[in-house]
Amino acid sequence: MPPLASRLDFAVHAARAAGDVTLQYFRRDDLAVELKADDSPVTAADRQAETELRRLIAESFPDDGILGEEMPEREGKSGYRWILDPIDGTKSFIHGVPLYGTLIGLEREGESVLGVIRIPALDECVYAANGQGAWYVRGDRPPEPARVSNCRSLKDALFVTSEVASFDITHRRRAYDRMQAAARLTRTWGDCYGYLLVATGRADVMIDPIMCVWDAAPMLPILQEAGGAFTDWKGRPTIHAGEGAATNGLLLEEVLRALET
After folding, report:
1. Tens of pLDDT along 59-114?
2. Number of domains in the chain
3. Given this model, what pLDDT does residue 31 score?
4. What is the pLDDT of residue 41?
5. Which domain holds residue 201?
6. What's 80's domain CATH number?
7. Where a domain ends, among 120, 145, 170?
8. Is the pLDDT of residue 1 over 80?
């Protein structure tokens, strides 16, 4: 099996294993929540799930690098680097909302080439690797192609985001107001679930003004392979901009005009 294909197969199974770890803590009354230096929450579920991902990677691909949200980076020597977010949407997780996810991305020589979004509590997963298409799985059903919508105008579009306050924090509230005014419907079905919705054609646009690299890592290959686009707010395809815009591609130019600040 080619190296990228073998890593994709591995990543899908690893995301399930880590997601299963999070489910052991989900909606538990005794779940302890700590605040990190940036005031974002973290739990034992975050740490244990990342520990499991790192263990699996070290066993299967010991020469690959690893960058995760909760633990120090491990340098590699293969040219591959895994980027991990064990629980994307920890605020949803600690409130018992099932829209949180486990994210796995992979870079090869600095290029984003593979991504997995797994929503453990809903048993949904979308995954992709460059040149291998994007695929959606729900429960025990066989994988089916993941495809973006064919919506051609924001007036007909569903626009989702993670948190309205993040537009205020980054002094970009006008961009949010323009998007909300232009879209047919606006909802905060955010964090990684919003990107899964765009990749599977159920939402048309997902915008975040604040993203760490582990939030964005899977999105570029998934959206591209699903026929859409993941870019920064200037239209550049990257996971390193600290912001993100996912569209079905057809709406990209209209969205970028709305996001101009």
Report:
1. 999 999 999 989 999 999 999 999 999 999 999 999 999 999 999 999 999 999 99
2. 2
3. 87
4. 86
5. 154-259
6. 3.30.540.10
7. 145
8. no
- Residue corresponding to tokens 């340098």: 75
Taken in order 174, 151, 215, 239, is the CA torsion positive or negative? negative
Largest CA distance in the chain: 50
Q: What is the pLDDT of residues 102-144, one digit of tens each?
A: 999 999 999 999 999 999 999 999 999 999 999 999 999 999 9
Assess contact for 132 and 226: CB atoms under 8 A: no
**What CATH number does residue 180 fall under?**
3.40.190.80
Residue 157: is it exposed, middle or buried by C-beta count within 10 angstroms (0-12/13-18/19+)? Answer: buried
pLDDT attached to residue 67:
98
One-character DSSP codes across 37-100: TTS-EEEHHHHHHHHHHHHHHHHH-TTSEEEESSS--B--SSSEEEEEEEEE-HHHHHTT-TT-
How far apart, in whole angstroms, are the C-alpha atoms of residue 104 and residue 137?
16
